[in-house]
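Worked example 2:
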Amino acid sequence: MSFKKILIANRGEIALRVIRTCKEMGIKTVAVFSEADKNSLHVTFADEAVCIGPVHGKDSYLKIPSVVSAARITGADAIHPGYGFLAENANFSEICMESGIKFIGPSPQMIRMMGDKAVAKDTMRKNGVPVVPGSDGIVSQLSDGKSIAAEIGFPVIIKAVAGGGGKGMRIVNDASEFENAFNMCRTEAEAAFSNGDVYIEKFVENPRHVEIQIMGDQFGNVHHYGERDCSVQRRHQKLIEESPSPVISEELRKKMGDAAIKGAQSINYEGAGTIEFLVDKNKNFYFMEMNTRIQVEHPVTEMVYDVDLIRQQILVAMGQQVDTPPQAPKGHAIEFRINAEDPDKNFRPSAGRIDSLHFPGGFGVRIDSHIYQSYVIPPYYDSLIAKLIIWGKNREFAINRAKRALEEFTVEHIKTTIPFHRKVLEHEKFVSGDFDTSFVDKYLK
């Protein structure tokens, strides 16, 4: 099987990222866009473009009938969902399949299984992957939740089964806080995901957030491409990612990679995926969740493993075997999410027109972005406007190169996270690699 035309069911930098790889593979592309995105670069550089609705995501990028209709009228034989929006929507994957359009991603069954965090955790536990102690599944009754929390010991974290992006989570430090947190978490989950189900885990204090990139094919092969450390985050949302992790040894990388492969093979996983772990101060690691899509931070893996993960996704979807990756990472890569936000005002979104723009360049510097001078950032979507990815022969080289690149990076009229990243690079805890997921709250507030 080979694809002649791929529709990209997304927007912004990831849509442009997929278009570039498709062009290099000789595959025609179709962009879809909302009325707010008519001047975006992914629309400009695709071979064809179809407007699928008004400015809000629910009326355009999340509207499955509109996306599928765009694929049909343009003759696209496959759809790449990118990340976010419909990327982990099992119904969308199923409708694509029923419509004779290849969904470039896992099957609906795999998405459903791994999208339900309680089921995913149980699946991993049964296949020998370490998991954080907690409930065996959904906790429906307050009394049951209290008993489980008392048994595993405080602090605990209550999580929405359908959660994501830091929503539907509550950390509970003692029994007196539990009832209020339990009810609030369920209410928030119902409002955000139309699913109020929650589960409970032991809260691992001051962990590293480390994830393993995997790729599987229809022949049962699953390979991993090392780890990414995503510990610099705020409100459970990642800001800086790097590979390899400064705290992961070759021995631990092999253990985590083998566990990730074992978990993915247990469900016959096909496509790109990420197994996310928490790593405690004693280097014990615990399964947290699986993302059944390409990640925002995939470029750092591409830089150190010399692989085009989007190309691999497409080839696997065509029925080819996944390529065997190098055994070890080469050099060090760091990704900085450049968001249209004001770090000095609690990362408040900053939409508007870009009056002046200059991207950094030079050896080892990569920019993934859809913005340009005079581009108007719409207020309706995620605030990510660019990703700065830096490669160096080691972590010290990468940090020094990143300082230089961030100094060159100029975006005028709107606020961005560039000043925040420059502060991070000057902090001794980050430079030494001695930090965890509490880093931003502890040192940069």
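The chain has three domains: 5-104, 133-202, 208-443. The first helix runs from residue 12 to 24.
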